Amino acid sequence: MNIINADLSFRDGLSYGNNPKMVILHHADAVICSIEDIHRWHLQNGWSGCGYHYFVRKDGTVYIGRDEKAIGAHCLNYNAVSIGICVDGNFNVEAMVESQYSSLLQLTKSILNKYGISKIYGHFELYSTDCPGSNFPLDRIKKEAVEGENCASYPGYLIKMNSGLEDDNVKIIQNKLIEQGYDVGRCGADGYFGEDTLKAIKKFQLDIGICDDGVVGPSTWNNIIK
């Protein structure tokens, strides 16, 4: 998968603080276009620019639109809790080619794994629209992207409270705990293992009947992630 930073210039800057809980999939509703076309259209709408975080061309090349930490402009009411991916094409009138699907699948899997999430939606499932089109392989990508990714492999080291060190695996744990109703503190899934995350892990360990030492080893990891 080839990922290219489109280096777009956004008007009036972007708002940050996106906290991804899901991936939302779109089509461009155009048989062929570029991320620069998308950017121009969205600027013409009066937006800051390209509303999507990623754009996948038919040849499988992936372009970065907005930074993942930037709030998107692609699905009303869900822009601050999602990663928006747009796919080149109009899938009401055409089918997706395999090179494009392969990159979309890899990209979606990597995002799910990065944030420890498993929810994937087509735009129409959250908003009144036909996007991403009747021929979009939504059921297929939901099945294939989530298989194995919501059970991210144990990283191979004990995860425990540290002093100000950020860890992507801590973020995965925090997101999974939040999904299951545990409170990891006001900062949410920030990747830092502090007192609130420690309390949440100990509570989880007690709830499932294992030693509540607050350390995430293979047993705690597998039970949290599954």
Automatic annotation (TrEMBL):
GO biological process assignments: peptidoglycan catabolic process
InterPro entries cross-referenced by the UniProt entry: Amidase_domain, Peptidoglycan-bd-like, PGRP, PGRP_domain_met/bac
Any matching Pfam family: PG_binding_1
A molecular function GO annotation: zinc ion binding
Domain of life of the native organism: Bacteria
Domain Peptidoglycan recognition protein family: 6-130
Descriptive protein name: Peptidoglycan-binding domain-containing protein
N-acetylmuramoyl-L-alanine amidase domain segment(s): 8-133
Family to which the UniProt record says this protein belongs: Belongs to the N-acetylmuramoyl-L-alanine amidase 2 family.
Annotated organism of origin: Clostridium thailandense
